[in-house]
Design brief:
This protein is α+β, with helices and mostly antiparallel strands and about 170 residues long. Helix content is about 45%, strand content about 25%. The chain contains five helices and six strands. Helix 2 packs across helix 4. The termini are far apart.
Amino acid sequence: MTVMTETTERTDTIAKATSRDEKGTTLQGRRGTDVPAATRGNTTVADGVVAKIAGMAAREIPEIHNLGGGIARAFGAVRERVPGRGSDITRGVSVEVGERQAAVDLNVVVEYGASITDTAGDVRANVIDAVERMTGLEVVEVNITVDDVHLPDEEEESEQGGRRVA
């Protein structure tokens, strides 16, 4: 019965924050002159910040080839070729940020030959560590969807097939 209460509280916390009009979360500090200066006031962490941290942390795992589903990767490849636009680090990353907690959903492409379960565990651990360390939010879950497996010869074929001139 205790587990159900904790899960309900986590869901309620995230639901309250995502139903607000504003994006991001505010970590409440304490007030007063008897409180250390470092803890006075509020810190707001935007959803996009959590998404960027999660995206970077997922990409740090060597077995992750890319993030995002097929269509998202195709649009991302086009956007990367537009001058002045960098790569979209949040492609394939979705977050829900509450007042004290966050949930992360990732769509990934895994390198052929890698253990998907081990890779998913490594990604989860790295994302949770990075988000919690950098934001102070508790990560309640990291859901991973493996959209594709990258084969070693796929990149070579797409590069040669995509060129119109040599």
